[in-house]
Description:
This protein has helices spanning 6-63, 70-82, 84-88, 133-142, 187-234, 252-302, 307-339, 351-367, 388-404, 462-472; strands at 114-119, 125-127, 152-158, 161-172, 175-185, 347-350, 372-377, 383-386, 411-418, 422-429, 476-482, 486-494, 507-509. Helices cover 52% and strands 17% of the residues. Bound molecules: adenosine-5'-triphosphate (ATP) and magnesium ion (MG). The site of magnesium ion has 5 residues, from helix 9.
Amino acid sequence: MRIQSIKFKITILYTIALGTLLVAYSSYLYLTLSRGLGEDLDIELKTKTKQIKYFIEEFNRQTFQPGENIDKNFDDAIDMTINLDEYRSRELTLKATNNDWLKSFDHLDLSEDYIYFLNVDSNVPAFTKNVNGEIKAVFLNTVDKNNSMQRILKNIRLNNEYFRLIQEPVYFNGKLKFIILIATSQKTLVMVLKERRDILFFSIPFVLVLAILISKYFSDRLVKPIVEVASVAEQVTHKDLSQRIKTRYNDEEIKIMVAAFNKMIDRLQKAFGHIAEFNSHVAHELKTPIAIINGECEVALRKEQSNNEYKETLKAVFEESKKMLKITEDLLLLAKADYVPENFVFEEFDLNEFFEEICGKERKIALEKEIDIKLKVLTKIRTLKGDALHLRRLFLNIINNAIKFTSKGGVINLTVKADQNNLIVEISDTGIGISSEDINKIFDQFYQKVPTDSHTRGIGLGLSIAQSLAKVHSGKVKVQSIVDKGTTFTVILPILSSPPKSQEAIYTTS
Ligand SMILES: Nc1ncnc2c1ncn2[C@@H]1O[C@H](COP(=O)(O)OP(=O)(O)OP(=O)(O)O)[C@@H](O)[C@H]1O
Ligand SMILES: [Mg+2]
C-alpha cells in the first residue's frame, strides 16, 4: 500500500477517527465511573454518620435517667460506638443497659473505618482502636473547628493511601454537642478504577490493530472497482475507439465514473472521426490544384513550347496556386477562430462606414450578374465593438454566396437593425434557395452544393468560417430559405452599449 494511495488514506483516516472516538469514549466511561464511585462513597459516609447519630440517640433513650449527667451519658455512648464489636460480643457491658437492643444495629459495621469524636464542651477526643498516633495527628490537623456547624467532605492521604473523610456535627437540645469524623479507605475505589483503566487503555491498541485490518479490507474492496475500470480504460486506444468500458459492480459512483469515461470515448471517437474526415477533405481539395499544376508543368516540360503556350501554362499554375492559397488561408482562419479566439482584436468601429465599404466592394462583383445590392440601416447605433477585419470577412462570405446563388437581375437586401442587446444584420437574396434537407448541413466544414451548370465551385468553408467568426463575437448566424424564392441569412452580434429606443431608417443606398 503506497502512502499516496486512496487505500492508505482511507485506512489511516478510519483508524485515526476510530482511535479518537475510542479514547474519548473510554475517558468518558472512566470519568463517569470514578465520579459514580466517589458519590457512592460519600453516600455511604453520610449514611454511617446518620446511623451513628441514631445509635447515640437510641443509647440515650435506653440508659438516660432524669437527673443524671447527660455529658457522662454521651461519653458512654461514644465509648460504646468506638468499641461496638466488644459490646456486641459482650466482652464489654454497661450496668445501665443490657446489650439486647444492639441487635437492631447489626447492620452498623464500623470495623473498617477510622472514627474520631470530639466533645465540643470538654474538647476531649475519642478514637476507634485502629487510630494510631500518625492517624491521630492527621485527624487533629484535619478537623475544621471553624466550620464545625456544617458537614464537610474531603480527601485525605494517610501512608500513601487515599481516604475519604466526613466531618459531621451532632446536636443535642439545639446545641452543638460534638463532631464526628469518619475516614474510610478509598482502596477499593482506587483498585476498581485502576482495573477499569487498565482494561480500557490496554484494549485500545488491540482495537486499533483490528481497525487497521478491517479498514484495509474495506478500502481494498472500495478501490477494487476503480482499479479494474482503469485497467479496462487502458486497453482503449486511438486505434480502436469502438470499445466501451463495462463494469460488473453496481456501486452508484462507479457507474457514474464508467458512464463519464464512455461519454468521453464517444466524444473522442467523434473528434477522431472529424479529424480523419477533415484531413481527407483537405487532401482532396489540395489534390486537384496540385494535380493540375503537376499536369501543366509536365506538358510544358515535355517539349519546347511557344511563348504564348508558356504564358497559358503559367496562368493555369497561377490560378491553381491562388486556389491553394485560399484553402490554406481559410483553414488557418478556421483554426484561429475555433482554437485561439483570444488572438482577435476587439475595437470600436463605425457601422455605416463598415457596411458601405462591404457593399461597395460587393456591388462591383454583382455588377457582372446585374444584381442590385440594397443597404438599409435601421438603427441609430453608430459603432460596434469587434474585430472589424474578421467581421468584414464574415459578411463578405455571406454576400458572396448570395451573389453566387442568385441569377442574373436578382436583388440582395442588406438590412442593419438592432434590439435591446444585439445588432441584427439580415442578408436576403432572390436566389435559388436551399432545400430543407440541405439547410442543416450548410454550416458544416467542406459542405457545398452547387447547381450542375455552375462554374463557381468553392470549397465549402465560407459559412463555417462565418459561423465561427460570429461565435468569437458571442454571436451566431441563422438561415431561412425557400427553394427558388431566395434565402435570408441573419447575423446576430451582441452590442455592449444599449441602443436608442426608437429605430428609424437613417439612410438607404443601392
Ligand atoms: N445564399 C445562398 N443561396 C443558396 N444556397 C446557398 C447560399 N449560401 C450558401 N448556400 C449553400 O451552402 C453551401 C455552403 O456554403 P459555403 O459558403 O460554406 O461554401 P461554398 O460557397 O460552396 O464554398 P466557399 O464559400 O468555401 O467558396 C453552398 O455550397 C450552397 O449549396
Ligand atoms: Mg461560400
